[in-house]
Amino acid sequence: MIRISSQICGLERTLLSDICDSSAAVAYGSLQKAIADRIDDSADSPLAFVARSGLQTKLQAVTDTLYEVDAASLIAAESQITLDLIRSQIGFMRSALLAEQNADPQAEIDAALAEVDRLARSEVNNRTFLDGTRDFQVAGQIAAQVREVSVESLGAPTSLAADQPARLFYAGVDRRISTDAVITLSGDFGSAMLDLTQGQSLFDAAAEINSVMATTGVQATTSGNQLTLESVLQGNQASIAVTVDFGMFAVSGGNGHGVARGTDGLVSQQPSIAGAVLKTATPASLTYSGTDAQITAQASLVIAGPVGSVSVSVAGGEQLTDIAYQLNAYSHETGVLAKATGNDLRLTTVSYGGKATLDIVVDQGTFNVSGGNGAGTSHGTDAIAEINGRLISDNHAANPFSVDGNRFSIDDDGNRFTIEFAANFVGPFQTITLSDAQTLKFQLSTAAGDVTTLGLPSVTPQRLGGPSGMLADLQTGGPLAISQDDEWQALRVIDEALAQLTRIESRIDAFADGAVATSAAFLSGLKKSIEESIDHLEKINEAEATLLQEQNRQLSDKVLASLADLSEQRSRIMQFIDRLPGLD
């Protein structure tokens, strides 16, 4: 028997549940369209929620890094502007010295120097940047040994001395083996027996030894009367031994008994510079010899140096000291200095090294010079030094270690610096330690621990200049204060300061146009890509959302209609029952 009740039946409960769901869907769709976000919580779409969370974390890291990039860009831009202003002031000084109507340029020089000092010490956000306080710190430098150390970056611990191979030495006679001998040569790879004969050239003996190098691990070289035996491997584990089986073959070195071991290098945990100057650089030089400290004959000549050239005329009987003064007045144009001593007039380049050249071309008359190639041309020579265990003697384009005069450039495992030795210094120099503790450090990438360092050198008058002197020397009371007789000295100092300023500008430009600009471009693009990915996850399809909302609304309307039909049916059934007889 079917029970008819006025209470809600199961079908009605289902329909009421459906209408609640569809009404909620309609309301939720309206909310989504209002906030344009379809992932309110992890229940909406777990995978999309996790993906969006990861992207938002990455976006925050990129945004934070871009703040660092902007800060680095601002400091670089401010520094570039300041350097431009300092260059202008130095240019004013040069113009003041060259102005024909300016009888006393000292006042202008002093004013320009004061402005250079003010600019170098000016603050940005209460911090100074170009007074040397933000540069790499150099400790242990002795002025008599080292003129300047300039650091660009610091990296791994410094190797102060390289691993050395094992070595033994044989002394021949007239570059030949002195006595017949049969020896057993042992190295890190193995041993080999060699038969050496009296009168055999050391060159042939070295070739015989090198022919079994793959077997022994020992190689040989010759120099004069010396035959050097050297292990292929280096370090404390490398060894060589010579055993004489017949005859005589005396070797020196090692333990004194025919056995030698290599030595390990020395590594400093703090970046350092150690070594010795083996040969100092020389300038180009030519000498004219006169008579009674005078020019012997009239001549017209062209003197060309590293900077430029000048035409000069000399007359017989002129004092060499007067000619020296005349030539020195053009030294800022030629890069050549002149000095009269007795009957000699010596011309030398201000700069040192293989790039320093001096040419004297006689257009008319007689002006014979000695030195150089014997034909009026001379070249300087570069220094030779051992720095951090490496011998540096020439400038190869493919070599990260190069020399120009007394200036050595080192690029070793992240440690990039230049060291310029004092003129004429030879010998070991005191170990110099380097630190980046006070430099500017920027996080220009999102990688943890990836820090870019920028050292800003001092551009105060005390630190700008070169071998001829510093800008501070030109101020009133300084050793190179301006006078009518030595303006050429001041011009050389100014030109050297401008050259140094160019090197500093190049470093900052490389940082701004390289590291900062590259990072800014990459991170900006990455930020845009991440934002687009997040938008793709978050933003809804307007047409799709409207259609779905309308479908849910229609479903709600249908459910309501069904409930109305059920209610109408229940009412009619009750009316029918009321009319049945016998149910009163």
TrEMBL record:
It comes from the Bacteria. This is Flagellin N-terminal domain-containing protein. It comes from Blastopirellula marina.
